[in-house]
Amino acid sequence: MILKRLVRLQGLLLACCCAAVLAACSSSLGNKIADSVPGSVGLPEGTPDRPAEPVAFPAVHDMPPPRANSTLSAEEQIQLEDDLVAVRSHQEAASGTAPASTARTAKKRPAPAPRLIPASSSSLNTLY
């Protein structure tokens, strides 16, 4: 009975010593000990000095200012797509390659319908 308690006490003492050593390694005490011991312990030759003041954390909650530009309207998007198709067909004609079969003419098309995500595929419905 006493032997079991002694073994448990030794295990507890060993765990406390390991915790203290690990805590010393992660604190400035560990750095001071490593710097004070001559020889191979510590920083290698040619390592830059540590900054005098620690680097500040980035401001993670600061929001960027709102954008100055706005999104394209449906008409502007159609015009942009038509311009891109015209440039592509011009480049294909200049290079001598066959024009793409998906080339569209510059006629007016109806505005694209907004894409809706079904409620069943919502991430909140799948999480809970």
Features:
128 residues; mainly alpha
Outline the structure in words.
By secondary structure, this protein is an all-alpha fold. The chain has a domain at 2-35. It is 48% helix and 0% strand.
Task: Compile the SSE list and pairings.
Blueprint: H1 2-26, H2 28-36, H3 74-95, H4 123-127
Helix pairs in contact: 1-2
Enumerate how many helices there are, as a single number.
Answer: 4
Distance between the termini: 51 Å
How helix-rich are the residues, as a percent range? 40-55%
* Rounded average pLDDT: 75
Helix/strand structural class = mainly alpha
Quaternary assembly = single chain
Q: Give a quick account of the main beta sheet: strands, pairing sense, barrel closure.
A: none
Q: Report low-confidence residues grouped into runs of 5 or more.
A: none
Number of strands: 0
State the order of secondary-structure elements, H for helix, E for strand.
HHHH
Shape: elongated
Summary?
The protein is mainly alpha-helical and 128 residues long. The chain has four helices and no strands.
